[in-house]
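ok trying again, last paste got cut off:
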Amino acid sequence: MSKSVALVTGGLGGIGTEISKELAANGFTVVATTFNKEIEKADEWIVAQKEAGFDFSVEEADVTDFDACGEMIKKVEDSVGPINVLVNCAGITRDGFLKNMGKDNWDAVLSTNLDGVFNMTKNVLEFMLSRQAGRIINISSVNGQRGQFGQTNYSAAKAGMHGFTMALAQEVARKGITVNSVSPGYVATPMVMKIDEAIRNELISQIPMQRLAQPAEIAHTVGFLASEKANYITGANIPVNGGLFTSF
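nice, full thing came through this time. structure:
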């Protein structure tokens, strides 16, 4: 499996970039995907990663478009190689109280964060089933477990990812495919670090470890789930949240 392809949606983001680096360091050929409107950023990202010693390719894909996902996956299978690892990391937020939330902001988050997981997974699954091997890793969120004030759309989508993970894991367990989710807490991505310091410190005060996660800490967890060391783990959710939410 070390020579296989890993496809990472949202691969140019703060967490996605670290996941791409982790998988590349573990021997995978990594293809990152980016949303159509952000494709212009890809060349700059590729150059920056090459300077850091990583040789990635980027494919344009709107995860909300089922057919586009299928076309992109077939292109990767044909031109790069068999996709043995799919990491569903693409996601957006459109926060607001439900009483003020427009249907457009509900639909945008659900179609990207949840429908996108279906669109990518359904299209890649036929290839994995034909090979009787594969890893599907869904990047959820602590807020999909505990809910979050002002995030009914985001929390619903991320909670849906957990149900999707557990159900699909049972369907494909006998086919050599594992399906798991990772639920980060608050992570020190460039986006989070732009939050007003006072607000950021308030968030940190709620975390028992009293710090944000580093993106690499999320990536290390994904790297483990993608490895042969995790052969017997499926249908699981791995929390990486510094103790912000605990359950069994």
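cool. The longest strand covers residues 177-184. Strands lie at 5-8, 29-34, 57-60, 83-88, 134-139, 177-184, 237-240.
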